[in-house]
Protein: Phytanoyl-CoA dioxygenase family protein
Organism: Streptomyces triticiradicis
Amino acid sequence: MIIGDLISGRVSMSALTVDRESGDIVQEVIKRVKEFGVALVPGWLAGDDLSALQGEFEGAFAAAKGTELEPLTSEGKDISHHYGQTRTGLHLKYNHGDELRNALPRTHEVFTQDWMASVASSYLGLPCTLNRHLILTDDFTPDEEITWYHFDEVGALKFLVYLDDVDRDNGPFQAIPGTTSTTSRLRESEWLKFDDFQKIRIDVFSQYSEELFHTLYGQYKSFLLSRALTFQAPAGSLLVFDTDTIHRAGPLAEGRRRRVVRGSSYRGYWP
Ligand SMILES: O=C(O)CCC(=O)C(=O)O
Ligand SMILES: [Fe+2]
């Protein structure tokens, strides 16, 4: 006898959503990231700020065009230092500080705001490093998914901004709320086992067994997957998430494009 149904225990999108006009955006965001692993602020940037980020994004890729493009590793991991290939497009990476300020001044301003520093320090503890790198991704090659469901090898808190309106067909961010602390144990056990970035098995649904899922998450794969949320939101929307929450960038249909800028914040002092 099954008690409850398939939707029991599901988390709704509204539970993860924070109003950009909210009086205490810091606490509202932290509360959701702590409880579910992810928070969404729809339409966080608009008007001139959004156009400035879009303009810097376009300028950066135009400047990189024709320079050396770093490939994916043989395991399909993206470890490029600056201008790199992804499965479905291109990426550009900048280090925090002067490198970012000189290349993308308005983007730098947006990703060093006081309230973000408060979210990062309250979530990660002190010292921490706010937006140690910023990654710009331009996805335009259609695929069933831009990335697989995964956790990041190095645990991070991320601030991710959509630069295009995103619907279910142009690479929506998708995540399974409530998986954060369990995945964090899984990630740690991978590091204990291998102590090698290249060997960490992040591709959760294909690299671990049904039994492991049931043991760790208390659900078989398909049922856990049925709890994934798809973050469809307008350009300028912000996602804040702990990368130990199982997540991916979803399907990209023919003729569609998705531009994103995201910053990765880490525990500890990282000059
Ligand atoms: O691009 C996305 O939607 C997700 C990217 C991702 O996996 C990450 O930032 O850790
Ligand atoms: Fe990720």
About this structure: The chain has a mean pLDDT of 96.
